[in-house]
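Archive entry: two folds, one per protein. Generate the first.
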Amino acid sequence: MPTVQDLARLLEAAAPLAYQESYDNAGLQCGSPQAEITGVLITLDCTPAVVAEAVRRGCNVVVAHHPVIFRPLKRLTGANEVEQTIIAALKNDVAIYAAHTNLDNVRGGVNDKLAEKLGLLKTRVLAPQSGILARLSIYVPNRPEDQQADVAGRVLAALYAAGAGQIGQYSACSFQAEGTGTFTPGTGTQPAIGAQHQPETVSEKRLEVLLPLHRQAAVLRALRAAHPYEEVAYELIKLENVHQEVGAGMVGELPEALEPAAFRQLLKQQLLVPVVRHTAFEKPIKTVAICGGAGAFLISAARASGTDAYVTGDVKYHEFFGAEGQLMLCDVGHFESEQFTSEVFRDLLTAGFGRTFAVLIAETPTNPVQYDC
């Protein structure tokens, strides 16, 4: 049977922990990584009632979007709901796993699902992250006359398998250039080419690939395992380039422009919300920026992107002024903008584990906000 650790590996392959914000606490919250999974209950927030539902429905893992342990715990006395949740989980051997801002910041995550619900097309990341890519340059022997010695091909295949060579939706990306390498093997070496103390000149290829920094260790292990040289020469340089597929928020286009009132009606219908708080805006809505959860920090980015509307949650009174009349700023609520995250988890777990165990969406209501319309 798959274990909690297997579940963590699967979710972190889709939403690496390296992509969570610095203030966040995604990952395994409590429970044994070695525990075999009997069933998974998916929820936006984990509460004592959710843990009770997991036990009742035969699930020993709860997967939540929001971490129940967000700030450091100093004691476990049951004094508040967070402590009560952890105590209930530990008593009943229920593991709790959270994928939060790391799931916000990847394609296929929270914002892709929100874009899907709104029918947005041609989507792209609104605020891509920078400083999370590196360029790896390596040198391999070049023997074009020997078809069995395609060292470059073997090394590149190993690097791709370890997570290098991806640019947007393009895979197996590399650059190659031919040149001449020189070296002199020292005492005690076992050179793949040449002999000890004899200067050597070799035709080589320079290979370059991009990689996400969180895959650095795995890529370098793959390089050393696949490379024929005893001492592998390489350069690893951190880049300031933005990662086009990683970052906060998303921008997309509606199939056809809608009048502002019609767009707000679309939000109500698709997001199941009775109320949309919004700024005044008279122009048709075609390009839409979105951010699930508390997204006021992206108002200026949405405005700069030239979108007609920005949809998010948790916008404060003074933050509405940030629209500056250039877009319609819509607050649909925190829960409402993230409620379909459960479908993201369900699809990932079902695709990864099939019918090995039950994957259930929680029935326990967790939204603390009520509307009296």
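Generate the second and append.
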Amino acid sequence: MSNLPKIAWIGLGIMGSPMSENLIKAGYSVTGFTLEQDKLDRLTAAGGTAAASIADAVKDADVIITMVPASPQVEAIAYGEAGILAHARQGALLIDMSSITPQTSVDLAKNAKERGVRVLDAPVSGGEAGAIEAVLSIMVGGDKADFDEAKGIFDALGKTIVLCGPHGSGQTVKAANQLIVAVNIQACAEAVVFLEKSGVDLAAALDVLNGGLAGSTVLTRKKDNFLNRDFAPGFRIDLHHKDMGIVTDAARNVGAALPVGAVVAQLVASLRAQGDGGLDHSALLRAVERLSGAQV
């Protein structure tokens, strides 16, 4: 019998499926629930157990991990008669790894405490590739004792794991992360269009740029997307649009000016309005191409 905690995983999407599979590979018992049968089949094929409901998934779990798109989905799975808090056992640890508003995380922790459930907010960065390779950055908010207890789980999912402060702090750092990533992708996209219109060998140019001060994880991860115009979603524009709304709203609340971030947020919104919301966020290149006169 394993001494590792029993895990319930709610949300088996682009990020959740490979992350849950990495926990199974690390020896954890994982029971999962999601709305799509094919995702449940994938979990069982990897050695996990499919649950018929949230209640069935969480009832015997020591740790409950959630990975869903946004605050409304977190609230939907956490609250109500069919939700996590109604069926989790006393003393269970709920780790929400979704990217949501800091206030949603604070409220969840408060409401869960009343039910005897501990909470960490632990959003991640690294995209689908980082999830598959188990090299995610994980930014955590909550109590240190709970963080220490969950560290083994985090170690199976990522490489850079930091307790950032009290409840909501992980989400605040994730919002800043999404700001930096969006601005970086936009700058790369503008550079790509500039280079191509100038007749430069794009592959060679991106290689040398990535070896200097202009280099970044974004350019490393997204270079092939730009070169091949491959915008299969690793992280969808729809989700980055949501995240830019989170960071601009949170910045307004604390009195922080985001002049460049606000412009990029509008560019993300415009790309989404043009029907590209389901594409990878590297598709910001398409918006720059349109502005530069290309038909895409």
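Annotation attached to the second fold: The beta strands are 7-10, 30-33, 49-50, 63-66, 93-96, 118-121, 124-125, 136-141, 158-165. DSSP finds 14 helices and nine strands in the chain.
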